Amino acid sequence: MRILLWHVHGTWTTSFVQGPHKYLLPVTPDRDGDGLGRARSWEWPASAAEVPVERLRDTDVDLVLLQRPHERDLAERWTGRRPGRDVAAVYLEHNTPGGEVPYTRHPMADQDEIPVVHVTHFNRLFWDCGTARTAVVEHGIVDPGPLYSGDLARAAVVVNDPVRRGRAVGTDLLPGLAATAPLDVFGMRTDGLGAVLGLSEDRLRTFDLPQDRLHRELARRRVYVHPCRWTSLGLSLLEAMHLGVPVVSLGTTEAAAAVPEGAGVVTNRPDELAAAVRRFLDDPAEARAVGAAGREAVLARYGLQRFLDDWDALLGTWVPAAAS
Prior knowledge:
Layout: E1 2-5, H1 10-16, E2 22-27, E3 48-52, E4 63-66, H2 71-79, E5 88-93, E6 116-118, H3 121-126, E7 134-136, E8 152-158, H4 162-165, H5 174-180, E9 183-186, H6 193-197, E10 204-207, H7 211-220, E11 221-226, H8 235-243, E12 247-250, H9 255-258, E13 265-267, H10 270-282, H11 284-301, H12 304-323
Parallel strand pairs: 1-2, 1-4, 2-3, 4-5, 5-6, 6-7, 8-9, 8-11, 9-10, 11-12, 12-13
Helix pairs in contact: 8-11, 10-11
C-alpha cells in the first residue's frame, strides 16, 4: 500500500513507518510545516520516501492519512484527488479535545467518507465525532532498549513549549516539584523556563536534544515525572517506561491505563506526586525494580509489532470500503 502522510508528529511517525508499506512524505521547497519530508532526528527506513509536492499529481496513492483539518484540502490541491471520495482516507486524531470539553465537536464529525482513528480510548470518549466512524489504535514505540542507569539523582520531565502551554502540561506544578527534587526539563522551547518560574539552575535545568541523545540522557535520571493535566497520552511517558526509568504521573487522560499498579506511581495529588519522586531519588533499588516492572508492562501493551498489526487490521477493514 502507498500511504501519503505528513510529518507532523515525529515520534508517532517513526513507529508508523516501520510497517510493510510505502510511505510518501510531501516536501515543499522550504520544508515548512506542510512539507517537512523525512525526519532529521529519528532513523526512518528507506520505505519512507520524500515526494516533492509538484510530483504528487503523478504519484500513485492508495491511502491518505490525514492528521490536521486543512490537510484534506491540501491533499486535493496537490494530488487532484479528494480524500474519502477519489482516494481512500482516514483521519488520525493525536490530541485531546480543546474548547468546551466534553462538548467539543471534531472537525470530521458527522461525515461518512473519512473514518477517525484516535490514539487513546480516552480521546475517543471525549471527542464528539457524531455519526463519523471511529476506532482506536493505541500507541506503539520503537524500543530504545533497557538503558536505565539512574546514576543522576535528578528527576526528568519532557515537555515542548512549557511556558506557552502552561497549565495544560503542568508547568505550574514544576516549582513545587523542584522544591522536592532537582529537575531536568527536556524539550523544544524550554529556554528561560527557570527564570519564568523563579528557579535557580541547580533546581531546574533545560535541554533540547535529538532523540537518540534524549533517550540516553533520560536513562541517566533517577525518575521520570509526567505532570501533564490535559494532553493525549504522552509518548515520552511510554519511552521512559521502555527505557526502564521509574515513572511518576498525574492520573489524567489515559495515564492511569498506561501505568498499571506496580509499574509506577499514578496520582492526582501534587503532594503524593512529589513524595513519590523523593522516594525514588532516595531508594535507587526500588527505583530500578519499579522501572523494570514498567518496562515489562509497556512492552506488553505498547509494543511496536502490536501497533503495526492493529493498523494493518484496521486498514484492511476500512480502505476497501472508503475507496469503493
